[in-house]
Amino acid sequence: MTSSSNTFSLPCYRQLQKEMGELDAMVEMTELAARYFVAAAADDRSVKDFVAAASKTHGVCVNVSELASFQTHLYRHHIVVVYESADRFLTNLRREHLDLLSREYSGDAKGIDKLSLALKNMKRSTHEMQRFVGKDLISRFHYYRAVRNWVLHEDQCVVEKVEAEFENLTPWSPENEKEYEKLTAPNSPEKLCFDDFVLFSRIAKTIGERLSQASIPQGDEWCSVLDGHSSIFKKLGGNTTRIRKKISVNLKTVFGFDTTTADQIAFEIEQKHDSLM
Question: Which domain of life is it from (predicted)?
Answer without folding.
Answer: Bacteria
